[in-house]
Design brief:
It is built from 12 helices and 14 strands. The protein is α/β, with parallel strands linked by helices. It starts with 6 loop residues before the first strand and ends with a helix. It binds nicotinamide-adenine-dinucleotide (NAD).
């Protein structure tokens, strides 16, 4: 077997349940190293509150440079009540924002897949949700969360004014649309682009630029445009009409949470954040579960590691060119669910409740 040499993965377990779920990911990477033609060097670093506790800084330069040198970063979660009163620059979330900003991770990918074994966990009717497989691509570094001017200022009559600015350029729109079109090519060839072009100029530009890119480079993709508020309704009415949805930072924040929750449990939802290609054609990337650090269950070995394990699967697919291994891992997860094994959060009648570490072991057993 030829080993692919010198591939570096950086694991950033973070806080709360982060270390518990990332530990299971580490076991799986070690299994791939041992049993497949892979040779990943696994590095770990402190991030968030764990880094603050040791260094009074949510991410040190050393860890940040390790992230720059890695092919992919896999993060657990950051934050917790202990850190809620820290000044803004020291808060655990600053580490995430720094990584996203400095790695220029402009596209956030969130799949919403309904596992057939867990149809009952959704608040929607089984016939609406069963077989659901959509991908939301959210622009992550532009729009109203970053636009200038911004702030709160005094105005006449002792009142105040809050200002945020929604801006997008052609390049910012087209680079994220390109990610969506490329993903659709590997799926059902369908992209729905969402904005509010009925009331916002930036929305008109968004619609025009996405359409122009499709006309120029992606003629075979079926592109439709939808107002973001309608998309929010359609996701509940008939979510299976969608394949890939691409939208801006603000609408994507809301629509991706909505789509994610269609499928039931936070413990199952992975995400990927992708950046631009560097001069060697490599894409910078970070993978993390959608859930947070879940302080209420931290340290009890009951957290569901599947969201983080599926984040590893996305890394195998989108950063590491290991589609087969990604598929193998996805199938192993499915197979464990087929066997009726469940962590506490997705437990239901007649199923067997298992711990975080046993879930990891069961998935590895299926890889074999
Ligand atoms: P949360 O996602 O941590 O937890 C919400 C609920 O879901 C909790 O009841 C928790 O026990 C449960 N849950 C979450 N993940 C689970 C898993 N893998 N298995 C089983 N149950 C799971 O959200 P929260 O409680 O609002 O936030 C807790 C902390 O996490 C806060 O400090 C918040 O700022 C932080 N947070 C971090 C991230 C991140 O690191 N990307 C994201 C969201 C929240």
């Amino acid at each position: 077997m030829i080993k692919v040499k010198n591939r570096k993965l950086l694991l950033l377990p973070g806080d709360g349940i982060g270390p518990e779920v990332v530990r299971e990911v580490r076991k799986i990477i070690e299994w791939f190293n041992k049993n497949k033609s892979l040779d990943f060097k696994i590095e770990e670093g402190l991030v968030g509150g764990a880094s603050y506790d040791k260094h009074k800084n949510p991410i040190t330069d050393e860890v940040f440079y390790k992230a720059l040198e890695s092919e992919a970063v896999i993060l657990g979660a950051v934050g917790g009540p202990k850190y809620d009163n820290l000044e803004f620059s020291k808060r655990p979330e600053r580490a995430l924002l720094k990584l996203r900003k400095e790695l220029k991770l402009f596209a956030n990918l969130r799949p919403a897949i309904c596992f057939k074994q867990l149809v009952e966990a959704s608040s929607l009717k089984p016939e609406i949700i069963s077989g659901l497989d959509i991908m939301i691509v959210r622009e992550l570094t532009g729009g109203i969360y970053f636009g200038e001017p911004r702030g709160i200022e005094p105005i006449e009559n002792n009142e105040r004014k809050g200002v945020n600015t929604h801006t997008y350029t052609t390049n910012e729109i087209q680079r994220v649309a390109r990610v969506a079109f490329d993903l659709a090519k590997k799926r059902k060839n369908k992209v729905t682009s969402c904005e509010k072009s009925n009331v916002m100029e930036a929305g008109i530009l968004w619609r025009e630029e996405v359409q122009a890119l499709k006309d120029k480079e992606y003629q075979k993709i079926e592109l439709s445009h939808m107002l973001a508020d309608n998309c929010a309704m359609q996701l509940l009415r008939d979510p299976k009409q969608f394949d890939v949805i691409v939208t801006d930072n603000l609408f994507g924040d809301i629509l991706s949470d909505e789509a994610a929750m269609l499928t039931g449990s936070l413990g199952l939802l992975p995400s990927a954040s992708l950046g631009a290609k560097d001069k060697n054609g490599k894409i910078r990337s970070m993978y993390e579960p959608v859930h947070g650090s879940a302080p209420d269950i931290a340290g009890k070995n009951i957290a569901n590691p599947i969201a983080t394990i599926l984040s590893l699967s996305m890394a195998l697919k989108y950063s590491l060119d290991l589609d087969k291994e990604a598929e193998q891992l996805d199938k192993a997860v499915q197979s464990v669910l087929d066997d009726g094994l469940r962590t506490k959060d997705i437990m239901s009648k007649n199923m067997k409740e298992i711990s975080t570490s046993v879930m990891g072991d069961a998935i590895i057993a299926k890889l074999k």
